[in-house]
Amino acid sequence: MPPRPDPSPLAGAGAPLAGLRVLELGHFVAAPFATRLLGDLGAEVIKVEPPGGDPVRQWGARHNGHAPWWSVHARNKRCIALDLKRPEAREIVLGLVRHCDAVVENFRPGQLEKLGLGAAAMKAARPDLVIARISGYGQDGPYRDRAAFGVIGEAIGGLRHLTDHAPGTSDLPPVRVGVSLGDSVAGIYAALGLVAALWRRDRRAPLSGPGCGGEAGGEAGRGAEVDVALTESVFSLLEGALPDYSTLGTIRQPSGGGIATAAPTNAYRARDGIWVLIAANSDPLFRRLAKLMGMPELVEDARFADNQARVRNVAELDALIGAWAARFDGRALEAVLAEADIPSTRAFTIADCAADPQFRARDMVREVEDPLHGPVLHPGVVPRIDGAVPPPRSTGPEIGADTAAVLRELLGMEKEAVAALQEAGVLRARG
């Protein structure tokens, strides 16, 4: 391996992944989400995007000409802009690979190989490299070459069928969760798989500094390919649906706001139109709710005597709870339920999340100064390790903001060489 340059100022000194350097060949959501998680935990992330920028830069409403989501999506990353169709860019990427512990990518299978940047080429540059590959269906199988986005993964993974009202209650199409859940779950699995592969690679390696696994041999020095499919990531979330089908022949159906196996658990409309979720599905909680409703006799009613009975008669039970809930405004309903220690809450909007004292107390909502936006709210780091709540080391930068610095630091490229490549359209650099 070549000598390893010192970590950049964007490496998270003292953080769990400090000293780890990751190259992101990602776009849209899944791979960038994985690297955001790694960056949040201290890894140095170098994101490669095309000269026109990652498409997410343009998604949603604009503030000061920029999409606010980018502030979070590319935080803790050094962004460089390369045209990967150019052979000169290929050589730059392989040069960077030599100085990185891992690569995260989410191109369609075969695309990087066509660019001369497949796994074989990258491993030739760094034999112990860990490559996390995210795609719609995985790197093999009959669907390998099909196009897919997160919504397709959610549909094939069985989730979209379940995000609907109960059969016969609505003619509208099954609804989307509201965020790119399939992409984000795949990103989480990619980050987990990457860290697991690095642990295998480095666990018996001599600890000699940042990225210390690079000199180890044998089992401990092995690189890896982490194969993550959007479809499989979503499919893995379906609880007992598959074993239920295989043993009982049942096909889980959508259940609207409720839970098919527990009652009462649903959203109930308060007098002022606010939806309040009440989860009183254990026997002690149901007794407490029945007493709070002024209907303690419900506990003795055979229809509601235990959870199985309540599930069978959930429509009648929800009607009773709904009628009671409608006597209160939302805030008042929340207050009486909280006083009775019954799990409950209104359905939070993002404004509710931003103002929530629990999120604020744990720095899960924090104000960050962004050069592109000024003060902007960021979500905090998950998971919290040893109580640490580090602020972002940087926010999403402009296109090519770090190209010149990264190429100088890692590849020793002179300013004139960078300028020549920019003039030729191979890269985009600022300053």
UniProtKB/TrEMBL annotation:
Gene3D superfamilies: Crotonobetainyl-coa:carnitine coa-transferase, domain 1 (3.40.50.10540), formyl-coa transferase, domain 3 (3.30.1540.10). Keywords: Transferase. InterPro entries: CoA-transferase_III_domain (IPR050483), CoA-Trfase_fam_III (IPR003673), CoA-Trfase_III_dom3_sf (IPR044855), CoA-Trfase_III_dom_1_sf (IPR023606). The keyword Transferase applies. Pfam families: CoA_transf_3. One of its GO terms (molecular function) is CoA-transferase activity. The keyword Transferase applies. This is CoA transferase.
